[in-house]
UniProtKB/TrEMBL annotation:
<dbReference type="GO" id="GO:0016829">
    <property type="term" value="F:lyase activity"/>
</dbReference>
<keyword id="KW-0456">Lyase</keyword>
<comment type="similarity">
    <text>Belongs to the heme-containing dehydratase family.</text>
</comment>
<keyword id="KW-0349">Heme</keyword>
<dbReference type="GO" id="GO:0046872">
    <property type="term" value="F:metal ion binding"/>
</dbReference>
<keyword id="KW-0479">Metal-binding</keyword>
<dbReference type="InterPro" id="IPR025702">
    <property type="entry name" value="OXD"/>
</dbReference>
<feature type="region of interest" description="Disordered">
    <location>
        <begin position="1"/>
        <end position="21"/>
    </location>
</feature>
<keyword id="KW-0408">Iron</keyword>
<dbReference type="Pfam" id="PF13816">
    <property type="entry name" value="Dehydratase_hem"/>
</dbReference>
<protein>
    <submittedName>
        <fullName>Phenylacetaldoxime dehydratase family protein</fullName>
    </submittedName>
</protein>
Amino acid sequence: MSQSSDTAKDKSGRRYPLRMPPGWTPPYPSFMSEFDAARRSASMVVMGCQFEDGDRATAFEFVSRMVLLAEAEGKADHADLSSCEADSAGRAQFVMTGYWLKPDALEHFFESAAFQTLWQRHSAEALPHGIFREVFNVPLERFETLHSDPTHLVGVAHAREEVTDPIDRHAYWGSMRDRIPASADNPFDPSGTIEILEQSANRILLRPGENLAVIRSGQDLGGVHGQEREEYYGEVEPVLNAGMAFLRDQGAEVNCLDCRYMVFVDGSGEKTDHTFGLAYFRSLSDLENWSEHHPTHLAIFNAFLEFAPRYGPAMKSRYWHEVSVLPAQSQIAEYVNCAPGTGLLSGL
């Protein structure tokens, strides 16, 4: 980890000052999830099945079964189900994203007979589909959330203790970093490379480099009708889709290792009106540079800044994100029968 120990702290006690402009007033309200001060970390697991059309039913059975096991056997604090029609390898995915606030519960889940039986059943070399699990142990001092609606529960918010009042650290460049507590003293410089821990004919276990940035950012149009819905799908969604496609197909230009534009699905695998992007960047600085300077994200940002203030607190559509900056220790990803370039394999 690169950190300048002799950088002087400012009057607020920060070694690296906030980028919030003086007298800043956000153009629309946003909120953050809060967790018990005694809680130090949470775990996020992205577990899925990569498949082609003929294996859709098998893939859905595997992932939907994992959701049930995570909740019942694994005591997950929350687990959700989503799909991606085309990943970086051109294949589809069904994905479970699970959250554990108790690390022991996740460890016991992975060691359980129920998990091991299901995982091994889908790990044989001859199978046409791939499975993967990307396991991120997130120090909460390296984590931030943002919500447009304080009552909207999605992702880790299902396990939160409280939600803040409207915050001022949002809607300006650098606000994402400003919301991460450890950014006061840590620049989160990237170091190291993706390390292969184990490898066989059809399986790779790896560890990402230091300060990998993970962002899960979504938009929920469920129950939204009329003008707001028309304007979102006419003005915001097209540029969002283009930005996600750029990160998926040309992400190496901006040090994005992987991006999936996903949609939540129901218990039958049917799509909802709730989408999100899941992206892995080499570092927080790389994510910030794409956000602040690349035309694909500037188009998204500007479209949203034109759209959201029209509705203010009356806006029915809901927006959220989660961002973590991860120490390499305790992060692992496993890919079995997956296409080259899937997920963090793209960084090898």
